[in-house]
Design a protein that fits this description.
eight-stranded antiparallel barrel; globular; 33% strand; alpha+beta; single chain
Length: 217
């Protein structure tokens, strides 16, 4: 009985994933001059698993961009304080424009004066799955997205809950991957290159002093 129930749930999740509507990058492209910024313009899914990425971004202020693959793009939130492994923490996450899938591995410098000008690091990357038998669009519309992450740094059950038009809360749910450790401070380096923000800025011709303010003291 339990096996049949699990198979039905898995099947429902698979069906839900195939019914997602395609999402637009119109707003993303409107804000950027691709003759000046090295940011990618597109990208296609590379497999059946859903991608997630967290990018540490020292722009006008330090924040973390939390992105989930859905509808052929990366649906994105800006998280000022970054993710927390402590279920007691409710981190503000502001919904921003969708990004192309190829952005998931973008690490480098956006020129000053361009939208989001500053240094970008791939702080974590991996895959995720929705925990409920509904499409991403349905969860988004309801304002509650519950999912399991399988990243290099972030794992286990998480939730995004909408509290306003663009305001959401990113929360770790209670499980064995929850912890009181400050993961952003404990593991500050890129999962792709092991660089700190200052190192990325130095290598890519960015503002090293500005980038360094986003690294641990």
């Amino acid at each position: 009985m339990q096996l049949k129930s699990a198979l039905r749930k898995k099947g429902a999740l698979t069906i839900a994933a195939t019914k997602e509507r395609a999402r637009s990058l119109r707003e993303y492209k409107r804000k950027r001059d691709f003759a000046k910024t090295p940011e990618p313009q597109g990208g296609k899914p590379k497999g059946p698993e859903r991608l997630f990425v967290v990018q540490k971004h020292r722009a006008s202020a330090l924040h973390y961009d939390f992105r989930l693959e859905a509808g052929g793009v990366l649906v994105s939130w800006a998280v000022p304080k970054g993710p927390s492994l402590d279920p007691k923490d409710k981190r503000l996450a502001m919904a921003v424009e969708d990004h192309p899938l190829s952005y998931a591995r973008f690490e480098g410098v956006i020129p000053e004066g361009e939208y989001g000008g500053g240094t970008v690091m791939v702080w974590d990357i991996g895959t995720y799955r929705l925990e409920d038998a509904e499409t991403f669009d349905e969860a988004l519309r309801k304002g509650r997205i519950v999912f399991t992450l399988n990243g290099k740094k972030l794992k286990g059950s998480w939730a995004l809950v909408r509290t306003g038009e663009r305001r959401w809360l990113l929360m770790k749910r209670k499980d064995r991957s929850a912890a009181a450790v400050d993961i952003a401070t404990a593991k500050p380096r890129s999962v792709l290159t092991r660089r700190l923000l200052a190192g990325i800025a130095r290598d890519e011709g960015g503002d090293i002093a500005k980038a360094a303010t986003g690294d641990p003291g």
